[in-house]
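ingest -> validate -> predict -> emit
validate: passed (alphabet ok, no gaps, 146 aa)
predict: started
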Amino acid sequence: MNKKRIRQCIDMLNAIDERHFSMTRFQKVTGANCVQWDMEHFHACGNSACFAGYLALSDFFRNDGGDIDIDSGAPVFENQMGSLAVSKYLGISTLASLLLVNGDVDELYNEGQDRWRCYSNYYEKEWQDVTPKDVVKKLEGILQRG
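emit:
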């Protein structure tokens, strides 16, 4: 486990404006119609991202050799992408990373008009309602368990 990197992620998440946070995609494209590769363009376009998407945009991740998949906004690290990249980067188990990034969504239901909602038992709330603070709590728990 890389405690320094986990703490950097906590600091990053604590600084995020919740209006630009969505666990539903690595990077949810709105204004620019394309994935952005740095924080300046990301905010200028009004895009939102999940924890892993913000990690891919962060300077500290890039300085440590991380990159961003320009098609999805997913983090790329040591030839791994998405939750596997997060696992490698933070030095945590694949399962812990899968839960952080993808949740354990087990109830998927249709609201009508092809709008799907899902519930995450890991975060104990609707997947689309997960906030940066919720992810911080999970990362703090990982740090405490060591």
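The chain has a mean pLDDT of 84.
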